[in-house]
């Protein structure tokens, strides 16, 4: 266990070095968040009755999404290094270590997500909670909700990391990461509620999307926070997160097992 | 200590002729060529031996090292290192060996070398006292003092290689695989690395397999030489067996390659 914590620590420190990138990211995220909220506001004003979420909750969803982007987007951050290691064959050195490749990549992945998000999250939260009423980040309804938010956020982080690990291991077979990456990011961006929150999806399709692993990523914590997702549906959503976490870890590990047997480390 | 018998590995390599038309054709129909990287390889190496593994480009040297270090599963044949089958017991196996691939880096790129060392200490669960002693000895012998606090990406090739070799020895492995460890080193570093490997072998009885294209490495280090070409072992003996009269070592080897048509 200690070795994986060491990976975590080193990766964490490495990511904290990228302060300039984080600053640029924050500026960009304010801009996007503001634009998105204005667009939703225009939509809200034309017909408040058909708006499926509370407006304040929608604004909070968007600000949290921007603040946590580096933590909860599927591919990005330091993932490029893993793809590069697989393509160039530098993965031999990782295979020469007495560690489980899966556990090592998983702890690296989670560490970079947390480190990168920390740098961006704080400024976004501070500024957005100072904005006037329906446009800013609201406080959660009560302490219990906030606790559930943290729990579902942790699960969302693990589900997202487990999904990236599946993508990593598929790359062992396809060698080029472009295809897998393109498909998984475009699908996930939409289906996890990255473009519009899931409640805005049409009936029928929404119920289907809610069963997919993507809905267990940012969708759950961001809606739990504002109280938009509560009671029995929330419990179901959190249980689904746990289930997909298990399944994705199993799939990732099975793929890796197969990959290590069959796959050839690139280069001489 | 190392027993290899009838090892085989075939790679399927996609080939196409040059040109746009052929690239489009390759989209629909791939032509594969089978390359027998390892074609019935057998040898055995005893404890404390130092063996030079030589052969022309593409002969199968790196592939053999990969099989021995558990990162490549062969198609056939057997291999035991210290009683372990490397690719079947990868995690247990790699804890006991040290590997350097000269063309690659095992140090974490963005952090000072010493951070990489500390991570390796945790990975291999090296006791603190042993770790300190090894770092002290290696720093001295490979002249690393100035380098330890520098991020890896700011080291020159030769400086990095010395750190790489140190990194592969922190856990005091009994077996060391060196795949082109002297690539890109200047005369001084080369001599330092050679001296160091020699001492390691003499003082700690570490078993060493070394591949290289620098015949002076072989001359300085290896009492035994295995020659491989096109995936087959062609010769297994001492340098003196190979050498005729007082030819330069490079010429001897060139003759040998010609003679075997590899
Ligand atoms: N990942 C791979 N995929 C396909 N073929 C490979 C792969 N790695 C090696 N080969 C092939 O296997 C053969 C042996 O390669 P290997 O890397 O073992 O040679 P080598 O003896 O180390 O050569 P060099 O001295 O150039 O390093 C070569 O013909 C090469 O084309
Ligand atoms: Mg090679």
Features:
heterodimer; A: 268 residues; mainly alpha; 0% strand; B: 262 residues; alpha/beta; Rossmann fold; 6-stranded mixed sheet; 9 strands; globular; binds magnesium ion
Summarize the structure.
The complex is a heterodimer of chains A (268) and B (262). Chain A is mainly alpha-helical.
Largest sheet of chain B: 6 strands, mixed
Q: Specify the overall morphology of chain A.
A: globular
For the record, what CATH class of chain B applies? Alpha Beta
Could you tell me the strand content of chain B as a percent range?
Answer: 25-35%
The main sheet of chain B orders its strands as 5-6-7-3-8-9
Task: State the separation between the terminal residues of chain B, measured CA to CA.
Answer: 29 Å
Unreliable residue runs of chain A: none
Q: Tell me the total number of β-strands of chain A.
A: 0
